[in-house]
Amino acid sequence: MKISILRNITSICLLLMSVTLVSAKTAKVPISIAGITLGSAVTSYPNIIESNFMKQVVVTDWHGFRKGVISYGICLNIDTILKIDMKYEDKSKRFYKTLLKKIKAEYGEPDVWSGDSFGLKYVWKWDFVDKNNNRVTLKLQYNGKDSNETIGNMIKLSYPGKIADERRCFMEMCHQKKKNLDAIHLKELKRSDWSHLIPESQK
Q1: pLDDT per residue of the chain (203 residues) written in tens, 0 to 9
Q2: Distance between CA 153 and CA 144 in Å, rounded?
Q3: How many structural domains is the chain composed of?
Q4: Is residue 64 situated within a structural domain?
Q5: Global pTM?
Q6: Which of 54, 101, 106, 169 is in Cβ range 3.0-4.6 Å of 75 for a Cys bridge?
Q7: d(CA 158, CA 92)
Q8: Per the domain annotation, does 138 fall within a domain?
Q9: Residue 30 maps to a domain
Q10: Burial (0-12, 13-18, 19+ Cβ within 10 Å), 165
Q11: Which residues constitute the domain of residue 86?
C-alpha cells in the first residue's frame, strides 16, 4: 500500500515538473520595451545619441585593487579621465582604519563625514584645489553590511567641476542633435501607445 502511494506521489511530481517545464518554454518572453529589443544591434537605433555624459572602462586585479571603474569625458573633456572609483582587495574594517590613518597623514583631516548614523557605512571626504585651479574630491568608504552598495573598502577621486561641465556639454549636444531632427521625425519619436509602454514578447 505504501509503495503504491509513493509511486502515485512520484508520478504526480513528475507530471507537475513536466507541465512547469513545458509552460516555461511556451510562455511569452518579454524582450522589447519602447521599441528597443534585447539582442539587437545598438547601431540599429540611429536616434540614440550617447550612452551617458561619461563613458567607463574597467580594470581588475590592479595593484592591490580587485576592480576599478574609470570614467572619462566624451564632449567637453574628450577621453580625459574625470572620475576614478577603485575597490580594494582587502575588504576588512581593520584595513579601512589603516587606510584612513595613512591618508590623514598624507593629506590632513577630512572635510566632510558622509557615512550613515547606523554604523553600516563609513565615508570620509576631502576637498582640494589642484595647481590648475580644478576642484578635486577624495572619498574613502567602508561598507560592512549595506548590500545595496559595494561591500568592503573603496576609494574615489574625481573632478566634480569638470564632471558638471561635461554634463552640461552633453545635454547641449543632445539638445542640438534633437534640433537637427525634422518635425515629422520628432513627432514620431514622441508618439506613444501601449505597444511602447508594455514589454513586447518574442514574435
Answers
A1: 545 544 555 555 555 555 444 444 557 778 888 888 888 887 887 777 666 889 999 999 999 999 999 999 999 999 999 999 999 999 999 999 999 999 999 999 999 998 887 778 999 999 999 999 999 999 999 998 877 778 999 999 999 999 999 999 999 988 887 777 777 777 777 788 888 788 888 77
A2: 9
A3: 1
A4: yes
A5: 0.73
A6: 169
A7: 24
A8: yes
A9: no
A10: middle
A11: 54-168
